[in-house]
Amino acid sequence: MIPTFFGITLATFLLINLAPGSPVEQQIQKIRFGQGSKSSNAVVNQEVIDALNKQYGFDKPLIARYGIWLKNLTRLDFGESFTYQEPALDVILSKFPVSLQFGIASLILTYLISIPLGVWKALRAGKSFDRFSGMVLYFSYSVPSLILGIFLIVFFAGSNYFSWFPIGGLRSDDYENLTMWGKFLDRAHHFVLPLICYLMGGFTELTMVMRNSMLDVIKSDYIRTARAKGLPERVVVFKHALKNSLIPIATGLSGFFGVFLAGSVIIETIFNLDGIGLLAYSSITSRDYNVIMGLTFLSSLVLMFGKVFSDLVYVWIDPRIDFK
Asked: Over the stretch 229-283, which tens digit does the pLDDT of each residue have?
């Protein structure tokens, strides 16, 4: 994990600092256009440029700046956001709850639905239910999030068809005046449409992985032996076959940890959700280096610990596996 972390952060640091359009260049352009000139060729004194480089920390060599960033990282100090003019960590934490709520909800629902559905499809392999559900899953998987989000808003949140759900946001205007149960229902009401968009991709993939894994296991010799001994089918499936078929699912757990920080630019834009995905996009376009590096640090840390967690679950499911 340690060399991987240094590789990720160093590569990201070099890429964003070597890309054109640094915060200093953007400030220079603002000064030029702010001088009352219609041309961007207005002269800016070298003293002003040097002061801007010092203000943003660009007066030092690139590697030295990376070393300073690592040193500040021990205090969880990512520096100040160039866009928001406040600590980058505070900016990230202010957007974090939105992505966290959808991350947890989509993670739980995906596994609660995909695993039983995959098992049921495996037990009904080749029959009408398996074929029909497979068509629906592949169709939903092929629809882009942008198109799906627009479709849901037009048909289920627009006045022309159905007005069952709000168009966007996380809560209603009178949210603070509601009871505790009313607040929960209001949040759930706002969650439905964006959560469907979050679920579609991983939901289909996980269901098909579970189905194929279960099919491979129930064709194994020890499953045939268990049936030959006269064990009930429910015991054969849920006690002997299910645990081993969960091994491929466990390896995918690490990827879902990224949902807690990744967010989705498209979904958050369509449904007016001010989360991590939208923050990452705006930070890249505005060259807000400190926020970008803060997001890189947190997301890489979450994903790497997710890999470790999936390995632990892997061993727990199948004790024969040894990573020594």
From this structure: 887 877 878 777 887 787 777 666 665 666 555 557 778 888 888 888 888 888 8
Spatial contact of 55 and 22, defined as CB atoms under 8 Å apart? no
pTM of the predicted protein model: 0.74
Q: Specify the number of domains making up the chain.
A: 2
63 and 118 within one domain: no
Among residues 138, 121, 117, which one has the least CA distance to residue 129? Answer: 121
Which conformational region is residue 219 in: left (phi greater than 0), alpha (psi within -120 to 50 degrees), or beta?
alpha
Q: How far apart are alpha carbons 22 and 16 in whole angstroms?
A: 9
Q: Nearest 5°: phi and psi at 80?
A: -100, 140
* Residue 102 to residue 94: CA distance in whole angstroms: 15
Angle at 80 between CA 78 and CA 81, to 5 degrees: 105
Specify the range with the lowest mean pLDDT, choosing from 29-43, 101-115, 166-180, 215-229: 29-43
**CA-closest candidate to residue 88, choices 168, 23, 11, 5:** 23
Q: Based on the domain organization, do 34 and 133 belong to the same domain?
A: no
CATH assignment of the domain containing 216: 1.10.3720.10
Q: Cα–Cα distance between 296 and 8 in angstroms, integer?
A: 8
Identify the three-state secondary structure at position 80: strand
> Which domain range does residue 40 map to?
2-73
Last residue of a domain, one of 13, 40, 73: 73
pLDDT the model gives residue 225: 84
pLDDT the model gives residue 313 = 74
Beta bridge partners of 96: none
* In a shared domain, residues 53 and 202: no
Quick one: 214 and 123 in the same domain?
Answer: yes
Cα atoms in the Cβ-side hemisphere of radius 13 Å centred on 116: 5
95 near 244, Cβ under 8 Å? no
Give the integer Cα–Cα distance in Å for 15 and 13.
6
